[in-house]
Structure formats: structure tokens, C-alpha cells
Task: structure prediction
Amino acid sequence: DRVLPVSQILAQSIKELEPQTKTQVVPNIVENRKLRTTKKRSSTSICVVADIVFSIKQQDKILEVFSDLPQTQFELHFYGGGPDESKLTQMIKGRSNVFLHGRKSNAEILEILPQHHALLLFSAYETFGITVFEARQSGLWAISKQDFGGSTYYDDGCLVVDSQEDLSKVIQNISSLAPTVPGIFTDLAPSSVGEKLSTLYSKLLLD
Result:
């Protein structure tokens, strides 16, 4: 038997719990999709696509950083639901440039992403972080962390932050950056991941 974690970080966590477990990393699939021309929002628009769980996804810390930025220059859009949704609703009351849109399907998110300038994923922990790559394919800058499981696949459109101070600086710089080109992630394409799985299963059959 063999466990197939999506990242080396997850594989290490499994090994810590069950040292005898055999693992083989197989990354998430990022579907290839055609980029649609969509008008950007007038202010520099940052979106956060994640379940609203402060202890993990850290929307409260993101909002804290965003509160110090010029209100007329930046917008912050939260997509998702979860146990801290009502708290977030209260926290953003009276803020004209912060929006909570609730849960959306993945298909809806993929349609919405090109409206924004950057996606932000500032979680305490991510085994992979697939939204980073979906955003990059849509031509957005992606603000993310180096210690996420999918970081080995980051391209030049991924802006790495390690602290709230870093995050503030990067967000402020977004408005002065030229638009980034859409990301291409060949190693995460269905054909590439499918080939890896096929090779793995063939080896297992021979064992």
C-alpha cells in the first residue's frame, strides 16, 4: 500500500504520524483553461478565496493589514464561508472597500478571478494551495507563502511573503506593477499528473 500526498509537506506530516507509511508525492491537477478577456476593477483589487476559518486561513490578519492601506486605492474581496463568517461580517461593517461574497462554486470563482489584480493566500498552513495556480493561469499576481506545499511550482508571478509587514509592502506595490502574464504549469497539467499516476500504478503492479 502507498499513500499519495499532494506535496512533500503533507508527506512529511504523514511520516511523523506513521513512520512506516510509504508515500509518493503526486501534485494536484490544475486544469488548463482559456483566458477570457475581462475588465479589471477600477481600484487595485485583491481577492481571498478560502474557507473563513481565522485560525487557519487568517482572514482577520489580512484585514488588519488591509486596514492600514489607502481606502480609495485598494479593494479587498473575500470569497468563502465557514465558522468565522459572522465574525468577519461584523469586522467589515462600515468599510466601503471590503466585501464578503460568501461561498461560490469553483466554476464561479474561475469566472470571477480575472476581475481582480491579485489573489492572496496567507494561511497558517497549506498542503498545496491550488488557488494560487488557478489565479496565475487567469493572469493575476498571486501573493503567497514559501512554506506552502505547492511552492516548488511557483513562477515569477507568485509574490512570496513571510509576515504581515511583508504582506503590506507587497500589496502596496501591486498597484505599480505592470500586468503579469498568465502562468503555465506544465507539471500540474492533467496529462502530466496522469502520466505520473500511470507510471506509479504500473510499478505497484510489478511489486
